[in-house]
Design goal:
Length: 257
Amino acid sequence: MAHSHGQHGGAQAGSPTIDTRERGAPKEGEPQFMDRRLFMQLLVFQVPSGTSIAANQEALLSALKEADIPAVVYADANDPRGVALLTFGEDPALFVDSVRPLFEAAPLRDWTLRPELTMIGRTYSSGYEKDLEFWLLDRPRQTVLNPDWNWAVWYPLRRTGAFEQLDGREKGGILREHATIGRAYGDQDLAHDVRLACHGLDTNDNEFLIGLIGSTLHPLSHVVQSMRGTVQTSQYIQQMGPFFVGRAIGRYAGSPK
């Protein structure tokens, strides 16, 4: 439901009212609120030596389809035996109830997880989205599942506390500079982004998770390079990475709901 009114949940007298819904731009004069979002998780593994990488990858794709888990499988560009699994859904219980059991049976149970590259986040709104549901649920899925965009760079980041202390106008200007560059890459079909919040979810206390998706790798590196000159990156980013670089070798969109 994209439109609803009132606060989400109740508050006792004297307590601040907390609204955890996402908010978009007004639509037909009414504010957009939605209490749905997409969770995405990236797991990176090493396939055991002495086993067929192709057979292991095929086993993973078969297991995903049998369990009906929407996913993208990447070959790790920086690890000859590396494979990554991106899964996503509105209910984060998916990662515990459906993804975990995949790795209880051979051959997947013999894979070695690289926890330093595990990433998890949730879609979020900035308050300016004209189509809130599309931005939160459909756009990220379409981006990672696009068969023409096989290259991906995923990385977490954290801004400094000083950024959060800026007033709204200055903060908005800094974010617009960043967004303008990113939008130009997307308009020219060079790089497309997936932006997730990971506050309290990331092992290393990062705040955001970024996926850069495209048909070739060089523009994904180029956009990161271009962003280095922005005020946000040059002055207010405390840490970025580690970076995962991969090429999609299989996708499963999930059965229609």
